[in-house]
């Protein structure tokens, strides 16, 4: 069984940060993630050159980090923890759509710096709102089940 | 040959941003919340920064437009990925997520962007 909280509710926080977990993150873990990030950036750039910038842009949302993250989570915790992480990635993916829409809408209108800040805020805002809505819905269902 | 420097900058930047978001995801609890950072815009920010610097905002806008289709494909692939990881474990499950993303993104490209 995993020792890390998998879902919010009960004694688990809805949103929290445990700085002590940084000690569990070794150099090799970070090197693997750096490698995945660098590799997909090169692939996105080459697709953009060989096909079109729009096609290259699609690869900015390639799930390159998912294999590295999930395998490391399974190694440290268990498969169940990786499944719960994937559930979160679905929500983060919806936030990534908001990032793309915001960036595409603003690049022609405001400065690039402001566009990237706004797009990142859109990713964080949409992701957290959907996450909180899902958590509230699950807790409401749990409460109804307990009442019956 | 003139593209080597921007590509190298994208690779370095992409690696660094992925590590930063991975560290945030590492300390985030519970696991479902941490999962948000598995779909963080790390590659996007890293690459768009270089594109803006090298080619300007209009080139970045084109890439961001393509990214919308890629992000929709990511969301759908991860939704199926929940069952795939539970059934096939992390490595095979995540490889299937990547494969599914390629199919969905290709369909989206042909249907919307081409």
Question: How would you characterize this protein structure?
Answer:
In chain A, helix 3 (65-76) runs antiparallel to helix 4 (79-106). In chain A, 72% of the residues lie in helices and 1% in strands. With 148 residues, chain A is an all-alpha fold. The longest helix of chain A has 36 residues, at 112-147. Chain B has 114 residues and is an all-alpha fold. In chain B, 88% of the residues lie in helices and 2% in strands. Chain B is built from four helices and one strand. Chain B has helices at residues 4-27, 31-35, 42-55, 57-113, and one strand at residues 28-29. In chain B, helix 1 (4-27) runs antiparallel to helix 3 (42-55) and helix 3 (42-55) packs across helix 4 (57-113). Chain B is globular. Chain B starts with a helix and ends with a helix. At the A-B interface, strand 1, helix 1, helix 2, helix 3 and helix 4 of A face helix 1, strand 1, helix 2, helix 3 and helix 4 of B. Strand 1 of chain A pairs antiparallel with strand 1 (28-29) of chain B.
Briefly say what this structure is:
The complex is a heterodimer of chains A (148) and B (114). Chain A is built from five helices and one strand, in the order E-H-H-H-H-H.
């Amino acid at each position: 069984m995993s020792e890390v909280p998998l879902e919010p509710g009960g004694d688990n926080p809805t949103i929290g940060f445990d700085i002590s977990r940084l000690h569990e993150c070794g150099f090799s873990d970070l090197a693997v993630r750096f490698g995945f990030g660098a590799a997909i950036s090169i692939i996105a750039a080459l697709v953009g050159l060989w096909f079109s910038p729009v096609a290259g842009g699609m690869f900015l949302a390639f799930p390159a980090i998912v294999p590295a993250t999930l395998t490391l989570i399974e190694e440290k915790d268990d498969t169940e923890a990786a499944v719960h992480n994937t559930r979160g990635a679905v929500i983060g993916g919806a936030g990534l759509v908001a990032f793309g829409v915001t960036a595409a809408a603003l690049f022609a209108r405001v400065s690039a710096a402001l566009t990237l800040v706004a797009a990142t805020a859109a990713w964080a805002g949409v992701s957290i709102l959907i996450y909180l809505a899902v958590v509230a819905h699950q807790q409401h269902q749990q409460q109804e089940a307990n009442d019956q | 040959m003139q593209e080597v420097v921007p590509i190298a900058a994208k690779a370095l930047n992409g690696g660094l941003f992925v590590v930063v978001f991975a560290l945030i995801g590492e300390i985030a609890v519970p696991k479902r919340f941490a999962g948000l950072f598995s779909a963080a815009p790390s590659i996007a920010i890293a690459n768009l920064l270089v594109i803006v610097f090298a080619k300007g905002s209009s080139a970045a806008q084109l890439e961001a437009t393509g990214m919308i289709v890629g992000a929709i494909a990511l969301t759908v692939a991860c939704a199926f990925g929940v069952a795939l990881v539970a059934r096939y474990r992390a490595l095979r499950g995540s490889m299937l997520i990547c494969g599914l993303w390629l199919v969905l993104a290709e369909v989206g490209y042909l249907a919307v962007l081409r």
